[in-house]
């Protein structure tokens, strides 16, 4: 899953504040990379940079 906050941060780094604001208003807190792959591609976001790290297993 991808955290919406990671997408917003990446867009703001690029100076794309209007897109970041839209993402903040319109998208859920976590995104399924497969379900939202088209949107991520449109925003030119690299999936590997955005994915949440896997939880370590004890």
Any overview of this molecule?
Helix content is 52%, strand content 7%. With 58 residues, the chain is mainly alpha-helical. It has one domain (2-50). Helix 1 (4-13) packs antiparallel against helix 2.
Query: How many structural domains does the protein architecture include?
Result: 1
Main β sheet profile: 2 strands, antiparallel
pLDDT averaged over residues: 87
| Total beta strands | 2
Strand order of the largest sheet: 1-2
Order of helices and strands: EHHEHH
- Helix count equals 4
Global outline? globular
Could you list the spans in which at least 5 consecutive residues all have pLDDT below 50? none
Concise overview:
The chain is mainly alpha-helical and 58 residues long. The protein contains 4 helices and 2 strands.
Key traits:
single chain, 58 residues, mainly alpha, two-stranded antiparallel sheet, 52% helix, globular
Please outline the helices and strands.
Elements: E1 2-3, H1 4-13, H2 17-26, E2 30-31, H3 37-42, H4 47-50
Antiparallel strand pairs: 1-2
């Amino acid at each position: 899953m991808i955290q919406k906050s990671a997408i917003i941060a990446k867009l703001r780094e690029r100076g794309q504040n209007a897109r970041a604001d839209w993402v903040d208003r319109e998208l859920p807190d976590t995104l399924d990379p497969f379900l939202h792959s088209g949107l991520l591609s449109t925003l030119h976001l690299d999936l590997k940079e955005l994915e949440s790290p896997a939880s370590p297993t004890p």
